[in-house]
Structures are given as structure tokens and as C-alpha cells.
Here is the input.
Amino acid sequence: MAEKLFYFLTFLALASGLMVVVSRNPVHSVLYLILTFFSLSGHYILLNAQFLAAVNIIVYAGAIMVLFLFVIMFLNMRTHNEPMAPIWAQLAAVVSAGLVLMVLVAATKASSPALEAVADTDSFDSQIGLVQTLGQTLFSQYLIPFELTSILFLVAIVGAVYLGRREPGERNSF
Amino acid sequence: MRLSDRAKDVSDKNMSFAERIYLPAIATGLGVTIKHFFKKKVTIQYPEVQRPVSPNFRGLHVLKRDDEGRERCTACGLCALSCPAEAISMVAEERKKGEEHLYREEKYAAVYEINMLRCIFCGFCEEACPKQAIYLQSDKMAPAFYGREEVIYGKDRLLESKDKTRPTDGPKRRLTATDTYIDPIAVGYNRQLKK
Amino acid sequence: MELDILTVKSIIILLVFGISLGIATYSTWAERRLAAYLQDRQGPNRAGPLGLLQPIADAVKLFTKEEFIPASANKWLFIFGPSLAMLTALMSSAVIPFGSTLEIGDKFIPVQGIEVNIGVLYSFGIVSLGVYGIMIGGWASNNKFSLLGAVRAASQNISYELAMGLAIVAVLMMSGSLDLRKIVEDQHGGNWNVFYQPLGFIIFLTCAFAECNRTPFDLPESENELVGGYHTEYSSMKLGLFLFSEYVNMFVASAIVSVLYFGGYNYPGMDLVADHVPHNLATAIGIAVMFAKTFFFIFFFMWIRWTIPRFRYDQLMSLGWKSLIPLAIANIIVTGCVILLFN
Amino acid sequence: MQDLPEVVRLIPITHYLLFASALFCIGMLGVLIRRNALILFMCIELMLNSVNLLLTSFATYRSDAAGQVFVFFIMAVAAAEVAVGLAIIVMIYRNIKTTNVNLLSRLKW
Here is the structure.
């Protein structure tokens, strides 16, 4: 069951990821990306990381992609006249991406025996993905990074507002 | 001078805290609406309950008969002439021997039609009629229509029945293209020409 | 035995879906009757006794109307939008605990569609997806009014989601769990969260209004400035799905408000009842109480709609960002301090 | 041993590695062939997510919560990044009326 689900979700994620890249309509790209995030959330649930699955949906699908869609609608990007890279550049891109994939696959294959060895099964804790465990870790061991994140958010908000503000005398130019 | 005591002075003073958080105002508004929830409803359930109409209300037309059950209409065309909406048309015919019990006058309307979509229920036809033949009932309204063919009321639906109850047993004949009927426009036009 | 539980579970899930659809259907009738009553009118009372068949007549009418897709619309997304709106609206009702447990055989089965220990996050995530239906539908119509409605919906939902999340955090701090069932059980008897979190409740309720696009926050479809907003171009059952999903959302929001703040299926004196009647009957009474609370909030949603006029857009934004979010943060801080002081 | 999640017993971690690498390469391909700044941004998100998946799978297989905490941080940083990045794209669009990255290389308008 878990195996079938894994392959199905993997296929879904890869196919919709590819569709993100190849669809010409930006709104379609956004929707395929959301589908990718959903299948990744499915993977997180398979991996017993419910909290991350929920946060992935809320943050990525619920907030970030809405912002993308929002900007696409505002910029009225329904025209399909986006220039692609020239054909030789596309070929080169496919070749180089393929090469990177090859290197990664080769490296994985080479180190697979070391990776396969699961950590000592006696102390294995399947509950690490649950909210309680994550919260304990987050608020004890990683408290300072967590607090720094809030400062990062503050900076990001200030930056976004500063960038998005209208300069004096400027007319709304959308 | 104040016409009503509901007027309020306009002021631009700053809102107090209670006004700025809106919640008391929202609660007041909710109170007002819920008060109306329990009020008696003013709606009249029309087909079952009807508002009383004035005794001189002008409703659906009827072609009257006299005391002996004869049609009063003599097809003089005055109603059609007086009709501002040009809703009435008729075809006149001479009374034959042996029909005296049917028609009071020597001439009668073989066809009498009122277009209810054109009619404005002004009652001029009733006023114009020298024979008191057409009458606008005060207790009956022209009903709504489902199709255009129902709009034109012929004698079958206008004429009073012998025992003064509807539906009538009047003739079912309707105007046809070959009929020569009194054209109110033509009549008016002629009259103007004569002047 | 395993199969039995599965059967009961699927019956519960089907029931939850059916009930949310049924309640949404009759909400349309209730809304029209209530609006009429608040305005000294009668409302629809012709189809069936008290007009109770009116929703069916409406559905038949919507189904038999002409399917129309504008020529310049994006066809698939145009159909996808309302379907997505309906889907997300229905999905969020799955985790709501409608009652305590049912005793079947020797097993106790909780009256809840899916039991997850992150129920709050689940419903929050689904709610945050609800805006996609509106955005996609509005964008695909290729109409400036629809687009404006869609853009308004997006910014409104994102803004109010923040305040909503922050308001929930205070409740979560009190119960120490993301499990909706645990949150309900913490409010045993009359020990409801609303007595501890009145401010959080008001913030949450306001945000729920905004998330459901209900008056006074119905700017995405404000009919007198944007024609119909995001559903300007829609007709027949696609329009029906949009309108219907609003009522499903309203039902879910009411249920979640009663779960989070009004104790769900808890009521004062429930222990006394539990001692004297069989377990299943006590559960049934709890479910009835839960639905009574939900119906009250649906009524409240409608009551507000026919009382308060619509906000202006800048007022909406400044209310969300400048009032509700700071208030929610202050609420969290105060809650944290009180918890620290008393524990 | 029976505590192990089903997926850990059935699927070797190399599968997750391969899957994540493939997803990463798709994102990279997108960055290389597309010229719309927004699509590029989305492809970068795709790459970030493949890394997230890898971190999560390692965290589960090694039973170490730190990996998941890192994913949480990455998501937070990604949210901040998107807020600023989209603001920049909107500003660029206001000024040069396009989001084609080829035209951005001039660095003036």
C-alpha cells in the first residue's frame, strides 16, 4: 500500500513539476506547482511528518502560491508571447540538466550501501514528525534560530512594503 | 423649524472609544433588526387574501345584456373611437328576422374584441357607450397571461351569459383578415378630413 | 470487527457530507426567509409548506438553465474554479468532531469524519485553499469585474487568515493540542473557551466572516460596484456551485466556532445526563447540542448580513492589518502571561 | 522494529534521493529554458521543495527531528523570500513593462 502510494505520488510530483516548466500559460504553471506541493505533502504524510505536511499546504499552497497567482493576475500575464530561450540554449539546458541528474544518480548509486543502513533500529522513534516532538526541538535546541526567523520576517515585510510603495508624484502604472 | 423630531445635528467631533470599536453600534443594529423579526408582517398573500377595491374600480370589461337577455351592443363604434389605446375593434352585422330575442337593436356586433395588453382601463368606452352595453367590473381584474393568443378577448369571454354568470355562451367567432371592421384610426382620420 | 468499524466510519463520513450539503441547501431557504422577516416581509412561502421545497425548485431551475461559457474565457479553468470552491468547502467539514463516541458492539467510535491529531492545521489549510476556486474562476472569466473580484478575494483572504491563525494560537496555548477533539474535551461541561478568550472569539468570528466572503466583508462579489464580482460571467449550476460553496463554508465556519469557543458537544449538566441515560443517547444529546450551537451561528451570520452594510475596501484592509492582527498578538501575549502565572 | 513506519521498511532511501534529484533537475531545467521572471521564481521553489523532501526523508529514516526543523526554517525563509522577490518583480514590471529576464541584464531602464 505504502509502496503503491509512494510511486503514485512520485509520478504525480514529477509529472506536474515537468508541466510547471513546459506550460506556456503562467496560471497553468502555478496550478501545476500547487499540484506538486500537494503530492509532496502526501510524501510528508507517508514519512510520518504530519506537521510538515500541513505547514507545506498552509504556507506554500495557501499563501505563497496565492501571492504568485495574485501577481500574475495583476500583471495580466495571459498573453502567450513570452520569448523562450533560443533553441540551441534549450538543448544545452536539457543536456546540462540531464548531466546533473546523471551525476546525482551516479553518486546515489555509489553511496547507496552506506545510505541503506538505517540508523540503529532500537532507538528508532517514529514520532519525530508529530507536533509535540517538533515543538520541543524547535523551542529548546533551535530557539535562537527560531527567534531570528521572526526578525527575518520583519525585515522581509519592511522590504516588501518599501519596494511596493508608490514614489511621490508617481501615478499608478499597472 | 423642524418638520420632524428625527433630525440630528451634524457634528464632526472625534469619535469616542466606544464608537471607534464599532461593537456597541453593531449590537444596537442587531437589536433593531431582531425587533423587526418579531413584528407583524405587512405582506398581503395576494391570491388568497385580496385588498378591498373601491366600488368604482375599473377592472375587466363585460358586455352587458338587457333584462330580457338580449345583447345591448349595437356596434356603433363609439367605444372604439373613444378608446385612447385603440384596443377595441368590432365587426357589425344586421339583425336577421327571428333574432329579436338575441339582440336588442337592429344592428349588433358580430365580433367584438378588446386587446388587454393595449387596454389601459381608463373607462372611456363605458362613458362613450350610448346603450350602456360595455361596463368595467369593479370586482374582477384582467388576469395575467401565459401567451399572446390569450391576450385578445373576444365576445366569448366578454359577453355576459344569459343568467348573468360567467362563462358566457356568446359566439366564439374572432376577427379575420377578410373582415371589414370599424377602424378607429380611419374613422378619426375621416372626421379630421371633414373639418 | 475491523470491517464493522470501517463501515461505521464510512457511514459517518457520508453522513457528515450529506448533512453539510443538506444544511447548506436549507441555509439558502433560511437566509431568504430570515432576510424577509428582518425586513417585515414573508419571503418564499409558496413551494411546499412554509416554502420548504424552495431550495429544490432553485436547484432544478439552476440545473435547467443554459450552460454558458464566454468565448474568451479559459474553458477548463472556468469549469475548474467552481468545482474547486465546492471541493474545498466540503473537505473542511471532515475533521469536525460532531459528537463524543458511539458505542457499537464493544467498540467506541468517535463521531468525526477523520481523526487527525492536527485537526486545526488541517481545517486551516483547507480554508486557505478555498480562495483558489474564487481566484481561478474570476481570472478565467476574462472579465475585468471578475478579475477585480478575484484579486479582492485573494488579498482579503490572505490578510484575514493571519489574524485568524493568531486568534486560534491563543486557544491552542490553552489546550496544548492541535487536535480538535482534545480542544473540545478540554471544555467539558460549561467550561467553554469563550469565557477565557472573549477577544479571541470576536477576532476569530470577524475573520470567519471575511473568509466566508459574507457581508460585511463580501467585497469580492459586491454586486453594486463589481456587478457580481468573481461570478459575473457564471450561469446555471456553475454559479450554483459558487453560491452553494458559500453556504457550506458558512456551516463549517459556524461548526468550527462552536468547537473552538463554545465547547462543541459539551453542555452544562452533561455529567448528570451521562450518569442517567445510556451512552449512545448521551452522545446523541451532545450531537444535538452541537448542531444547536452551529445553527445559532448560522443564524448569527445571516443576522449580521442583514444588519451591517458592506465595508469599504481600505476600511477592510486597515481593520485586518491595523486592528485585528495587533489585537490578536496582544491576546496571545496576555494568554501566555496568564498561563505562566497560574501554572 | 515494529515501530518503523511502513514506508521506511518498504522503500529504500535511495528512492527518495533519486526522486528529489529528478525534481531538482526539473526545477533547474525550468530556470535554464524559461525567460519569465515569475516562472523562474516558481522553478526555484520547485528546487527548494526537492531539498525539503530530502531533508524530511533523511530525518525520518535517521529518526532525527533536526532535519524536519530545518525544513520548517526553509519554509519560513522561502515565504520571506517570496514576499520580497515578488515585490521586486512587480517593481520591475512597473518600470519596464515586462518580466523577461533577458531584458533585465541591461540593469537600467
User: Anything to note?
Assistant: Residues 12 and 39 of chain A are 7 Å apart (CA to CA). The first helix of chain A runs from residue 2 to 22. Chain A is about 75% helix and 0% strand.
